[in-house]
Structures are given as C-alpha cells and as structure tokens.
Amino acid sequence: MPRTAVRNVYLNYEIVGQGEALVLLHGLGSRLEDWRAQTAYFSKSYKVIAVDFRGHGHSDKPSGPYSIPMFADDILHLLDQLGVDQFHLAGFSMGGMTAFQLAVNQPQRLKSLTIINSSPCVPYQTLSEKMTVWGRLGCIHLLGMARLGKLIGRNLFPRAEQKPLYDEFLATMKHNDVEAYIHSLKSFLGWDVTSRLHRLSMPVLVVSADHDYTPVSHKQRYCEHIPNCQLHVIEDSRHATPLDQPERLNGVVDAFLRSTQPDFSPQ
After folding, report:
1. Structure-derived torsion over alpha carbons of residues 30, 257, 99, 203, reported in degrees to the nearest 10
2. Is pLDDT above 90 for 139?
3. What is the tens place of the pLDDT at every residue in 217-234?
4. Closest to 102 measured CA to CA, from 136, 128, 81, 78
5. How many beta carbons lie within 10 A of that of residue 1, not counting itself?
6. CA distances to 92, 123, 133, 142 from 130, in Å
7. Residue range 25-49: average pLDDT?
8. Residue 19 and residue 168: Cα distance in Å, rounded?
C-alpha cells in the first residue's frame, strides 16, 4: 500500500476500484484493513480510499498531542494530493468524529456523509466521564495494550463464534504504539462540533448498533440538528459494526449511497 507525505507525517492509504470516491475512516486503535468487508463490497462501484490515521497502522506515529481537527486536516490534505475534490465520506467511531469535523469544515466537498457508531461531541466534564478515561489510561500504563485489548474485545465480540474477530482485534491492539494510542484517545476528549451541525447540507446517514456504547436515543437527538439526516439501527451488533455485521451495514450504506445519485428513483 502506498504512503505519502502529508504535512509533517507519512500516511498509509489504499485505493481500490473506480468511480466516485468513497473515503473510509477507521476508529481508535484500528487500521484501514479493518474495512476489508466494505472495501471488497464497495470497490465494485466506487473508488474506495481507506486511510490509516497518524499514529495508526502503517502511518507515521509522531509525538503528540493529536486532535480531531488535526486528523481531519490530514485527510483533507491527502485527498488534495490525490486530486480528489468531491467524495462520499464514511467514518466509524473516532473516524466518525473526524468525518463530522471534516464535513462541518468543508461541507461543499462532500457528496454524502455516513456516520457509524459515533457522535459530534465527546463530553469530558463529569467525574463519571473522567473516570472512564482514567480507567482506560490506567489499564494501559499498568497492564499494557494486550490486557486492554482483552477487556475491550470481550465486550465487542462476546459470542463463541466471534472468536476469530476477537483474536484479530487482540492482535491489532497488541501492535498499537502505546504513546500514539494515548495521544489519539486524548484527541477527542471535550471535542464538540454540535453547534455547527446545521452546516451539513449533504445527505447524512447515521448508523447505530443496537448495543453501541452510546444509546440509539443519543443519535436520534443529534440527528435532529442535521438538515438532511436519516438514522438506521443495526440489530444484534455492538460497537464494531463494520466487523460484526458487515453484510447488514454494507446493504444499508449501499442503499443510502444509491439514493444520493441524481438519477435515483425509489422502487
């Protein structure tokens, strides 16, 4: 996979397929390979561009701090270098936050926006909110990334038949750079673009797993602030919907993307 210099880092990316550009942004501690089910499916109709964020995968892992606006600027500069002016954008978890940031900054560049198990804000004010983060940071410092991976993985993939997904997730977590992971985790604490959601003039799809970290009601509330937004719930899914329900997710996103085409007519 190619790497290219974007500002002060080299970013790793993958381009598969031809057609309108569909950009995929992964979550915290993840990598572009985790979109493999989506890349294989959508590359039949789109030019799929998946990117490793700075600090992740095979991209550079510079010293921090990191921020969601920084991630968004990295992606935008990469797309500029690739000559991609307009594109469909899909982001999962931290990638969804970055997608929100990019969309409110440059709404004219997006043909559509898909948000998967994410939010336009991450409150970091109450003791409960801070203790959740402190607990994860404490686990990293005291027990390491492998132990953190086990704790998170058991929640993401609890069923016996999901063991291959659990094992792959654990292997990915083990290979994460500790400092880069911490910088990435801290990047979204207190981040908030809720007041700018009215700028999203493009069609927006919000996908929520029925057992995501945040309830469906949270997504319903912020969808009310987006002019052209639809919400779809994926049943029998936890936070890692692109991995635990890839077929259902692909079908929902495919139908949404087709509905954004000028010649689309519902059956």
Report:
1. -160
2. no
3. 999 999 999 999 999 999
4. 78
5. 13
6. 22, 9, 5, 18
7. 98
8. 31
Give the single-character DSSP code of 53: P
> Within 10 A of 112 (CB to CB), how many other CB atoms are there?
22
Query: How many Cα atoms occupy the beta-carbon half-sphere of 71 within 13 Å?
Result: 33
Residues shown for the chain: 267
Summarize pLDDT for 76-88 with one digit per residue, the tens. Answer: 999 999 999 999 9
Q: 3-state class of 34 per DSSP?
A: helix
- How much is the average pLDDT of 157-179? 96
In order of their start, the domains of the chain are 3-122+191-259 (3.40.50.1820)
CA distance 203 to 112: 5
* Contact (Cβ atoms closer than 8 angstroms) between residue 122 and residue 186: no
